[in-house]
Structure formats: C-alpha cells, structure tokens
Amino acid sequence: MDKLNNIKVFCRIVELGTFAAVAREMKVSAMMVSKYMAQLEESLGVALLNRTTRKISLTEAGESYYARSKPLLDEFAELDEDIAELGQNVKGVLKIAAPIDFGGIYMAPAINAYQSEHPNVKVMMSLQNVHINLSEGIYDLSILVSNSLELGVVARKIAETRLCTFASPGYIAKYGEPRRIEDLSRHHCLHYIDTPHEDYWVFNVDGEEKKLRTTWHFASNNGRALCQAASLGMGITQAPEISVANYLEQGKLVEILKDYRIPSLSIYATYMQRRFIPAKITTFVNFLTKYFDWQMNAGADRIKKRETGAP
C-alpha cells in the first residue's frame, strides 16, 4: 500500500468535493479512489470522511488529519522541485490568481514568454476580483493591484499604474470635456461595480484624496467592457492606466481631469513566506519584474509619440 498516494487522494477529495472529480483528475475509476480512501482509513483505524448519497464531509479526525497532512504534502512537492533544480531544470505546476482585467489583458503574453524560457513549468491561472488567501494553499502566487498589503506574504512589485479618468474624443466633442470633478454630475459616467471604493470615484484634490459619488449611466464588474463602452462614446470611465493602454495608443480614449489623478497604484506578485521558495515561483516573479518593466516603458513611449505627433 502506498500510504503517501492515499494521503494525496484524501486531500484531493477534501479539495475537489467528490470521488468522481478526483477520479477524473487522476485518470482512474471512482472505485479505485474509494479503495485508496478505504485503505487509508483502515490503516489509521478511524473514519476521516462522512459519506452520504448527497455530499461528503470531514469527520473531526478528518479535519485534523487534513490540516496536518496538507502542509506535509506541500513540503514533499517542494523537496522534489528543489532537488530537480540541482539539475538546472525548473519544473512543476504554478498556480496563479490574478485580477480579471489585468490577467485577461497582460498575463497570457507574459506566461507565454516565461514558458519559452522554462518549458517544463505548467501554469494554471484563475481570474477573479476577490481577495485570495494564499495561506489556504490553493494558489502559489497572487497578482495584486493595490497599495495595501497583508502580513505574512512576500510582495514583489512588478509594475506601477495610475488611476485616471478617460473619455473618447467623440464623447468630448458631443458633450464637452469636464474641467473640474464637480462637472461630472452633468455627464454620463461608466461605473465599475466591483472595487474597494464601492460607489465612489477617487481623486486627488490639493494633495488630499477625495471620494466623489457619481451617477452612473452604465455599470459593469468588467473593466474591459467599461473601456470598450467609453471608446464607443457611451460615457466617462475611471480606470488604471494600464487597463486602457491599448485604447490610448490607438487614440480611442484620452485622459481627462489630469490635475486630479491620484498617486500611482502598485502591481505586486505576492506569495507566502516560507523556508524554501520553489524555483517555479522565484523564476516567474523575477521574469515578471523584467517583462513588465519593458512593457510599461515601451507603452509609455508609444503613447507619448502619439500625443506629440512624433514618428
């Protein structure tokens, strides 16, 4: 009996929720997964799972066993990766969480470039605009656009962006350009409904942050949809400059209310502090730092050339 394998099966049942899901992942039958689980419980002399026809839940012993065995499995995985690195071969599965807009626009090209240098690293990316608790062990790395960081994580800044206000040339021609933030009350505003600022837009007024509640004309929890709407002349949007870079380069959007923009937001790659940091994490974060430094500088040059009319 391979007890380590049985422990892995148990942990995946807890994480995926069903025997069938684990069977699909392992490419074995559900009966075999059940056999592994029965072997583990028999060896321990205690039930780890409550099984009903509708759901699976942990027993008190199961909760304790999972809490202590999961970190051990992670340590074994890190040990394998550390030894593999001695042969200069970075490999493994890197699980990443990233904001929907930033991840959807920028991360796929970055991952493609990284994997061209490290082809033995598989990357699994989840896009979501929710807080990621890295201590749960579901993700190795989380991309965060913020100026506030939690304790217990390592945060490497990979880029900076400004929170600015944008409109299309067509919208400005039709409705005029607001010169003060108070003028926004007379304009169509496009509101992002999933931000820490909730119903407010944030501006810098005489060196102090000021929140302004806007009356929205169109709202969405997807920044790309809002940028597209703004480019179509539907209204004014506030967004990180990095999210609208392509629209600025093409002249479909222009920045307005420049005197009121707040200080830069930082974009971090965050991961848990631990004794041994797997090479798949360190190489990826180091790569992102260089990659986005080049991307941001190149994008800024293109926008500047467009604004000044330089060839």
Automatic annotation (TrEMBL):
- CDD domains the record matches: PBP2_CrgA_like
Q: Does the keyword Ligase apply?
A: no
| Record InterPro entries | LysR-type_TF_proteobact-type (IPR058163), LysR_HTH_N (IPR000847), LysR_subst-bd (IPR005119), WH-like_DNA-bd_sf (IPR036388), WH_DNA-bd_sf (IPR036390)
HTH lysR-type domain location is: 1-59
Q: Which GO terms describe its biological process?
A: DNA-templated transcription
Q: Does the keyword Hydrolase apply?
A: no
**What Gene Ontology molecular function terms does this protein carry?**
DNA-binding transcription factor activity; sequence-specific DNA binding
What keywords appear on the UniProt entry? DNA-binding, Transcription, Transcription regulation
Which family does the UniProt entry place this protein in? Answer: Belongs to the LysR transcriptional regulatory family.
Query: In its UniProt entry, what is this protein called?
Result: Transcriptional regulator, LysR family
Lineage of origin: Bacteria, Pseudomonadati, Pseudomonadota, Gammaproteobacteria, Methylococcales
